[in-house]
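Proteins fold reproducibly. Take a tokenised chain:

. . .
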Amino acid sequence: MSNPVNRYTYRDYLQWDDGERWELINGVPYNMSPAPSRIHQKVLGEIFGEFRDYLKDKSCEVYLAPFDVRFPSNDQADDTDNVVQPDISIICDPDKLDDKGCNGNPDLIVEVLSPSTAKHDRLRKFELYEENGVQEYWIVDISNETVEVLSLNHGQYERENVYGNEDEITTNLFDSFSLDLGTVFT
């Protein structure tokens, strides 16, 4: 991975076949290894399953990492320097989906924090998702058994609520969806 200006694009990213997961934010590569913990995967699977079941007969689609989300610059998807693999991505515009993943902003993203990615998810990805118009961003903290729900309002995230393991989460995007955190964190 050598680049004379130390800025990488999606075109570079596609050439990296080292068995590791990478993300690019503003042209800077971030290694997403090591593999997530068993608890991370269990919580992620519970949330994904609830969304998958809810969206089964609806127009939105839900995807589980690894799934590339590209935030194109100047409508040039291969030249973008922002490509991430959110834990869960929900996309309601089918025109954003292609064989490589999502080209544009998902409507809702869920990130389950790991010790190695917590800062990355809370700072870099937060800013990237906010700048690119992701309507809702859920940050799942498995160590504290909480989910922070952030909603985009006039281009900036506002905290809707922080939910604990005794709560049910709803979303502004789907009228009848609710998620019982008691089942997620057990």
